[in-house]
Amino acid sequence: MYRTFAKHGRRLGSLTWGRGDDAMRLLVLGAGALGGYFGGRLVEAGTAEVAFLLRPARRAVLERDGLRIDSPFGAWQGPVATLAAGQARPGWDVILMSCKAYDLDDAIAAIRPAVDARTAILPVLNGLSHVDRLIAEFGPERVLGGLAKIQATLAPDGTVRQLNDWRWITFGEVGGGLSERVRAIEAAFAPARGVVAQAVPDIMARMWEKLVHLGTSAIGTVLMRANVGEVARSPGGIDFLHRMLDRNAAIASARGFPVRDAFLEEFRAVFADTGAAYATSMLRDLEAGSRIEADHILGFLLDAARAAGVPHEVHEAAWLHAKAYEQRREAGRLPAR
């Protein structure tokens, strides 16, 4: 069983942070594509005391086989500490939330017993609505902003498989600035192989940027049921993706978070790459007949487009497409696999 470490914290504003010379204690909710990859790389680096809070089936796999990562930056397999629901206790410096957005209610219930006055909750969920919800549940001093830029999936055999060279995790204080605690998280990740971790002073702007690119990708790949390269090779595909990128950037600007020129240039190139195999996790989930984050990405953007006065007919079509898929899935009418 994972042992409990005494904490001898020092003050960070209204927070107690750190335990002298002891390693940071980090609890990862879930060990799928994101949590398994970033948490596993920390275990491999040995710079933090890491445990995974898991559902029974995933916990059984990890206890039997260890955590396995298949990556362009090197494979790794090793034992990891795991906790089941009901075993979580206070004493964690950071809780990394890597669940799907539609599991937020269950995730909040799972981590609540582990949160104390020292805990920073770092969510890397898609979308933005979860930030306000977590602040309402745990208080503004407990919640960080975060995002992950990684193409990874959980293979049927339980291996976390990284699909390309995207390997970024970015985080910061929701209110802005660089605190001791986000710098400490950055330092813990620094030696980790295949990870670029960055603490930033403007995390909410960065999260809006991610939603701009993710929303564009999701609209294109979900509506067309094709990856970015396949859409780009189709007549008018590049212009369509660029048009949606501009509209989503206009939404972010209307919300007070103008998108950087360098970011737009980067993703114009991504969406013009006719050889790209890039596909959103939403498309992979659709193709697998799994649950999707329709409301948290497409629905959120549709509401934001309407409020901003941005043309939203395509946003509406993408959200309707995803909601109709959910209806088919609930009715058991998806094609047999």
Automatic annotation (TrEMBL):
It catalyses: (R)-pantoate + NADP(+) = 2-dehydropantoate + NADPH + H(+). Pathway: Cofactor biosynthesis; (R)-pantothenate biosynthesis; (R)-pantoate from 3-methyl-2-oxobutanoate: step 2/2. Coiled coil: none annotated. It holds the Pfam family ApbA_C. InterPro entries: 6-PGluconate_DH-like_C_sf, 6PGD_dom2, ApbA, KPA_reductase, KPR-Related, KPR_N, NAD(P)-bd_dom_sf. Keywords: NADP, Oxidoreductase, Pantothenate biosynthesis. It is an enzyme of class 1 (oxidoreductase). Residues 202-325 form the Ketopantoate reductase C-terminal domain. The keyword DNA damage does not apply. Signal peptide: none annotated. Residues 27-174 form the Ketopantoate reductase N-terminal domain. Its EC number is 1.1.1.169. Belongs to the ketopantoate reductase family. Catalyzes the NADPH-dependent reduction of ketopantoate into pantoic acid. This is 2-dehydropantoate 2-reductase.
